[in-house]
C-alpha cells in the first residue's frame, strides 16, 4: 500500500527500507535464469553476478558453497544457469540480492528444446512463410552491414562486395555479436539502419561459432524485429551447418558472409558479359528480322502486279473500254427496238383511229349531247344534229327520215 507522506510529514529512511523489504519478501521463492559472471567463493559462501542474457541488467546472488557444488563443474563464469532463489533486501544497506537455494546449469539439450518451441511458435504465426519475404534490389545503392568490429565477417562482406561491384556503398554498424550485450546492440543497429531511407538492404553477418555463441541470433526480440523491418534483411550467421532462427525469418539466408556479398551485389564482370550476350542476341534478332522482311519484299516486288503496275492499269482500262462498248451497243439495240415498236404501235394506232376513217369521206353524226347516232330511226324530224367531218363540224336539222 502507498505511504501517506508529504513535505511536512516525511517518513524516515528506516521506514521506507522496511516497507521495501516487506514488499520484496512477499515475492516468495522464484526461479531465475541468467548468465554467471564474477563468480568467487569466500569461506562457505559463493558470490556471483547473474546477468540477463539479453538486456544489460544483473543481480547479485549468494548461496552456500554446497548448493553450487551440487550443481556440478558446469557452474563456471559464462555458464547459463537457472537459480531457485529467495529475494532478499538488506534493510541496513538498502541493497537487493538473491539467496540461492538450488542451481541448475542450462544444458545444450534444454537450450535446443527452448529454441524448437520458439521456432514452432513463430512458424504458427506465419513469420517463416515465403510470401511475406521481401525481394532484394538488383543493385542496392547503399547497403547496411551489422557485424563485429574488425571481424572476419566484416572483411569478407566488404572485400567480396567491392570486388564484385567497386562502386557499392556501405554503412557499417559494429556491434557485439555474442554475449549479453549482443541482442541489444544488434537491435539498436537494426532500427537505425531500417530508419535510414538510403539503405536498401541490411546484412547481419557473423563468423562461425558454437551454438552458445550464436544464441543471440535466435533471441525472440531480435527475430521479431528482423521480421518487422521495412528494409530487406540478409542473414549471414555462421557457416553452412549453422542455422539460427534469424535465418528463417530473414528475407534471404546466406550460408556465409562471403555468400551474402555474392547474393546482395551482382558481379560487374558477369553483368557486362550478360550485356554483351544480350546485345549480340539482339543484333541477331534484328538482322534475322531484316533479312526476312527483305526476302518478303523481294517476293512481293516480283509479283506481276508490282513488277509491271502499268500493265494492270492497261488491263483494267481495256475492261472498262469493252464494258463501255457493250453498254453502248446494248443501249443502241434497245433504242432501235423501242423505235421499231413505237413505229408499229403508231401505225396500228393510225389504222384504228376514227380520224383515218373520217379522212376517207365518212362522217360521225351526233346529237347535241354528243351522243352518236347509229340508226336513222333514232332521229326525229326537226331534231338538230352535229356532223363531224375529217376537217370541221356541221350543224344540221333533220327535215325527213328516209328509208334505207
- The tally of strands reads 13
* Low-pLDDT regions: none
Strand/helix succession: HEEEHEEHEHEHEHEHEHHHHHEEE
Q: What is the CATH architecture annotation of the largest domain?
A: 3-Layer(aba) Sandwich
Query: What is the tally of helical segments?
Result: 12
Task: Give the termini distance in whole angstroms.
Answer: 168 Å
Overall shape:
elongated
Percent strand: 15-25%
Protein name: Exodeoxyribonuclease 7 large subunit
Domain OB-fold nucleic acid binding: 13-103
Coiled coil: 310-337
Catalytic activity: Exonucleolytic cleavage in either 5'- to 3'- or 3'- to 5'-direction to yield nucleoside 5'-phosphates
Structure notes:
Residues 127-349 form the Exonuclease VII large subunit C-terminal domain. Belongs to the XseA family. GO terms for molecular function: exodeoxyribonuclease VII activity; nucleic acid binding. Bidirectionally degrades single-stranded DNA into large acid-insoluble oligonucleotides, which are then degraded further into small acid-soluble oligonucleotides. The strands form three sheets. A five-stranded mixed beta barrel has the order 1-2-3-5-4. It has four domains: 13-106, Beta Barrel (OB fold (Dihydrolipoamide Acetyltransferase, E2P)), CATH 2.40.50; 112-266, Succinyl-CoA synthetase domains (Rossmann fold); 306-348; 357-397, no CATH class. The longest helix is centred in the C-terminal third of the chain and has 44 residues, at 309-352. The chain has helices spanning 13-25, 65-70, 108-124, 152-164, 182-195, 220-227, 246-249, 257-264, 268-301, 304-307, 309-352, 354-359; strands at residues 30-42, 45-51, 58-64, 80-90, 95-105, 142-147, 169-174, 201-206, 233-237, 252-253, 364-366, 384-388, 393-397. The protein has twelve helices and 13 strands. The model has no long low-confidence stretch (mean pLDDT 86). The radius of gyration is 61 Å and the shape is elongated. It is α/β, with parallel strands linked by helices and 404 residues long.
Amino acid at each position: 500500500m502507498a505511504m501517506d507522506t508529504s513535505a511536512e510529514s516525511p517518513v524516515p529512511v528506516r521506514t521506507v527500507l522496511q516497507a521495501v523489504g516487506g514488499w520484496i519478501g512477499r515475492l516468495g521463492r522464484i526461479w531465475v535464469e541468467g548468465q554467471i559472471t564474477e563468480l568467487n567463493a569466500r569461506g562457505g559462501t559463493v558470490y556471483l553476478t547473474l546477468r540477463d542474457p539479453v538486456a544489460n541488467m544483473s543481480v547479485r546472488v549468494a548461496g552456500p558453497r554446497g548448493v553450487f557444488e551440487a550443481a556440478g563443474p558446469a557452474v563456471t563464469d559464462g555458464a547459463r544457469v537457472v537459480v531457485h532463489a529467495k529475494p532478499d533486501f538488506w534493510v541496513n544497506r538498502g541493497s537487493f540480492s538473491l539467496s540461492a537455494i538450488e542451481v541448475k546449469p542450462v544444458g545444450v539439450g534444454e537450450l535446443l528444446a527452448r529454441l524448437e518451441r520458439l521456432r514452432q511458435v513463430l512458424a504458427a504465426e506465419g513469420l517463416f512463410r515465403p510470401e511475406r519475404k521481401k525481394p532484394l534490389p538488383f543493385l542496392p545503392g547503399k547497403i547496411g552491414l551489422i557485424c563485429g568490429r574488425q571481424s572476419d565477417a566484416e572483411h569478407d562482406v566488404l572485400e567480396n562486395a567491392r570486388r564484385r561491384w567497386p562502386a557499392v556503398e556501405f554503412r557499417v554498424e559494429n556491434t557485439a555479436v555474442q554475449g549479453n550485450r549482443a541482442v541489444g546492440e544488434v537491435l539498436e543497429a537494426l532500427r537505425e539502419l531500417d530508419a535510414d531511407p538510403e539503405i536498401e538492404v541490411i546484412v547481419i553477418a557473423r563468423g562461425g561459432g558454437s551454438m552458445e555463441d550464436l544464441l543471440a541470433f535466435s533471441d525472440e526480440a531480435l527475430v521479431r524485429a528482423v521480421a518487422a523491418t521495412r528494409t530487406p534483411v540478409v542473414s549471414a550467421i555462421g557457416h553452412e551447418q549453422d542455422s539460427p532462427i534469424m535465418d528463417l525469418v530473414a528475407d534471404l539466408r546466406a550460408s556465409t558472409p562471403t555468400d551474402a556479398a555474392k547474393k546482395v551485389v551482382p558481379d560487374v564482370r558477369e553483368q557486362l558479359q550478360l550485356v554483351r550476350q544480350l546485345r549480340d542476341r539482339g543484333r541477331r534478332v534484328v538482322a534475322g528480322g531484316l533479312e526476312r522482311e527483305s526476302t518478303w519484299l523481294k517476293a512481293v516486288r516480283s509479283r506481276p502486279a508490282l513488277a509491271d503496275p502499268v500493265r494492270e492499269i492497261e488491263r483494267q482500262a481495256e475492261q472498262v473500254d469493252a464494258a463501255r462498248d457493250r453498254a453502248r451497243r446494248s443501249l443502241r439495240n434497245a433504242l432501235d427496238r423501242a423505235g421499231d415498236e413505237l413505229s408499229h404501235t403508231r401505225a396500228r394506232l393510225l389504222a384504228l383511229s376514227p380520224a383515218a376513217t373520217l379522212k376517207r369521206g365518212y362522217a360521225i353524226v351526233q346529237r347535241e349531247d354528243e351522243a352518236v347516232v347509229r340508226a336513222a330511226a333514232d332521229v326525229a324530224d326537226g331534231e338538230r344534229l352535229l356532223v363531224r367531218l375529217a376537217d370541221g363540224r356541221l350543224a344540221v336539222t333533220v327535215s325527213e327520215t328516209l328509208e334505207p
